[in-house]
Amino acid sequence: QVQLVESGGGLVQAGGSLRLSCVASVSLTSLGDMAWYRRAPGQQRELVASFTTRGRTNVADSVKGRFTISRDNTKDEVYLQMSSLEPEDTAVYYCNALSKFLPREYWGQGIQVTVSS
After folding, report:
1. Which of 51, 57, 105, 117 has the fewest Cβ atoms within 10 Å of its own Cβ atom?
2. Residue-by-residue pLDDT tens, the chain, 117 positions
3. Residue among 1, 67, 77 at smallest CA distance from 34
4. E-strand stretches of 4-104
5. Cα-trace Rg, the chain
6. d(CA 79, CA 40)
7. Among positive and negative, which fits the CA dihedral 90, 44, 51, 92?
8. Integer Cα distance of 42 and 31 in angstroms
C-alpha cells in the first residue's frame, strides 16, 4: 500500500509563503501522475497543480503565477511552493498519486493551510 504524508502547512499572513511537502512510501518513479488538491470549507475539492510522468505540469488558474509544483525523485518528495498567499487559499491540501499500473489512486491525510487577512 502506497502512503503519502504531507507536511509544511500552518498559519500564515496574507502575502506570505509556505512550502508543502509530500513524502511517498515508494519511489516516485513507480507512481503515475501526481497532484495537489485542496478543499476549502463548504466547497468541493479543487485541483491545484499536477504533473505527469512525461514531465508536463499544470497549475490552476486561481493560483497561476503564485504556486509551483515540483518533485525530487532522490527523496521521493513532491512539493507545492505557495507564494503571495491569499485568505482564499485557506483549505486542507491533499497530495494525490495515481498508480502507474493499476486503476488506483492514493491520497495523503491532508494538511491545513490557513491564511489570515
Report:
1. 117
2. 899 999 999 999 999 999 999 999 999 999 999 999 999 999 999 999 999 988 899 999 999 999 999 999 999 999 999 999 999 999 999 999 999 888 999 999 999 999 999
3. 77
4. 4-7, 10-13, 18-24, 31-39, 46-51, 57-59, 67-72, 77-82, 91-99
5. 14
6. 20
7. positive
8. 31
